[in-house]
Amino acid sequence: MDWVKTFYSATGEWWGAAEAKITDRDHDRVSLLRQHAGAGSMRVLELGCGYGTTAAALAAAGHVVTAVEVSDRARHAVDFARQATHGRLSIVQEDFYAVRLPQPFDVVCYWDGFGVGTDADQRRLLVRISREWLKPGGVALIDVYNPFVWARWDGDEEHKLPNPDLGYEHELHERTTFDPVACVATDTWWDAADPARKISQTLRCYTPADLALLLDGTGLALTAITVAGRTFDPATAQPGSSELLHEQHQYLAVMRRL
Ligand SMILES: C[S@@+](CC[C@H](N)C(=O)[O-])C[C@H]1O[C@@H](n2cnc3c(N)ncnc32)[C@H](O)[C@@H]1O
């Protein structure tokens, strides 16, 4: 997992000016947290918070948030914490596999990031969530990469032109591949000005059934899935299955402590 800090710090340099802004995506996540965890002010742990936009939106909504981020994107999160979050947002720039956090939380969330490393690594993280960080009755909200859509992107290439008005200064190339045996997507980027320096993120994707197997023995159970704004019980009805097959490259897994 050595690539994590390098990849997200380098891409954060490219995109931070454009993307370190609170948008509807962050407000939607605040609503998802309320939907799955209930109303009222919660103690929230956000893993891999990136620029800290969702953490800041959660703090502005009244939650008390600790956000952990290993890459240099954390400096944007620190800026948010200094602004109008009324002291409710703390940023910890550390690896979430190593960090020590003294108090338990009502909610642990990890938006758009779960799947780095091996299955054993994911289990290690899930066990920390269940045994160290979540209070009894607490809920974990974790975005999971959906293999059906990533597989369809195998071989795709994109050429992204700069758009300085929006804060995108770099001319970039992206190539996506998918390994159907390991169920891992590789997303490779390079700057047109420096084509020899290619950086990649590798993301293990899980179907809901595989995720349920992964959870075995971690102390967490998969209780709901939200796809494209619709929530269903993974054990019964599947109103979101068309979106899962064709459209949404990730889904929100709702997990509770057993
Ligand atoms: C795809 S980005 C998403 C960022 C943010 N959650 C969002 O939705 O905008 C995943 C983030 O997780 C962070 N991350 C990955 N592994 C980590 C680790 N072991 N410890 C702390 N942060 C980590 C990365 O540095 C990156 O900023």
TrEMBL record:
GO biological process, one term: methylation
Entry-linked Pfam families: Methyltransf_23
Gene3D superfamilies: Vaccinia Virus protein VP39
PANTHER family in the cross-refs: MALONYL-[ACYL-CARRIER PROTEIN] O-METHYLTRANSFERASE, METHYLTRANSFERASE
A single MF term (Gene Ontology): methyltransferase activity
Protein name as it appears in the record: Methyltransferase
Keyword Transferase found: yes
This protein's record includes keyword Methyltransferase: yes
Keywords assigned: Methyltransferase, Transferase
InterPro entries registered for this protein in UniProt: SAM-dependent_MTases_sf (IPR029063)
